[in-house]
Amino acid sequence: MKGNYTYRLRYEKTAAVRYISHLDFVRVLNRTVRRSGLPVTYTEGFNPHPVMMVALPLSVGTTSEDEYIDIDFDEMVEEQEVLERFNEAFGGGIVVTAVKRVGEGDISLKKLDEAHYRVEVELKEPFVPDIGAFLSRDSIIVSKKSKSSVKDVDIKKDIKKLAVMATEGRFLTLSMAVPAGNEYNVKPELVVEAMDKYIEGFDVVFVQCHRTALLCEGKEFISK
């Protein structure tokens, strides 16, 4: 049946591909779409490319278990077939875990407003931070970089959740929730940077981030 159908893919980005840039990832997607052999919609013109939307690009080095992309199709296809064909075409590193045909009542990826992370931190010395004291500060000022400038911002209100999940010697695991979206977002590394700045004894050596959820007003884009 000819028409316009949008399919939403939830996928994982594993450690094997954590260091590819967003631009390289888009190139991988374009090749994957072609290899899949699925009836994907293409733009018109001299350089046609698949009509698709990535929810929120991942920072280089970050892994994830809850990424989303919407792809337009010219024909209706069974969701399971879309999942299987894309996983065969990706070939490893990126794993599609769910597919849903988008309907009128589904949330637009453009309305994404929150991201959750699990953050592994290596410290110079064993230390357990007092998260309550950190969050009770009057302000939490950090330098936030954009494409054109660097400015000091107060991210206290942006830290929606912050907790210590586990500790082992110099290593600890944090859980956090921060704003995410096209207009405004806070990277988890910025929160760790603020902790390093304001918490005495919290001296960071290395940070590894893993995105666990992308949400809109607390709701998932594909229910788990």
From TrEMBL:
This is DUF2344 domain-containing protein. NCBIfam families: sam_1_link_chp. Residues 7-188 form the DUF2344 domain. InterPro entries: DUF2344 (IPR018768).
